[in-house]
Amino acid sequence: MARRTFFSFHYEPDVWRAWNVRNAWVVRPSEQDDVGFFDSSVVEATKRTGKDQLKTFLRNGLHNTSVTCVLAGTNTWQRPWVRYEIAQSVLRGNGLLTVGIHGVRDANGLTSEVGADPLSAMGVYRANDSGNLYLAEWQSGKWVKYSDYGLPIAPSALWFPAPTTADVVPFSRHAMRYDFSAQNGRENIAGWIELAAQMVGR
Fold it and tell me: Deepest of 27, 101, 120, 130, by most Cβ within 10 A of its Cβ?
């Protein structure tokens, strides 16, 4: 079945790579009926102004999607809007996966350095005082409460057992990471997306 997939990426350095990856399935028309994917990415969001407007745009982009594919370049893990997209994806129950695109050549034919997994910089923990679950992010060498969503999250939002302590569980522990270039992403990305959906029961 086709999966509506949201692609999260660092726009300025990686938009060329991201477009190549997201369009990889188009070259295999025989599979489009069964495996295509559709997305609402941050590309158009760059034309918007204002933090609240951008948040609304990104939430709307995630509407009716079942998987969020984080296209990771060198510094994607540090980008606040990528973190916002990951947080909102968790809240809506999307499947999550990371696909490294550092090995995909940009418009100038250049590759980039591999970066950290963005899903390793976001996670969840249980507060000692209230027992509630909260999102966390990696900032300045330590875990802190996620700043753009401070409300408790329901255990049902997670696709893995909820943490029982204040130790942060990174989402990367329960999501797959792939390398688009090294692992033949053009042939395999549709299967990676399908697996991410199945892992969360979508």
Answer: 101
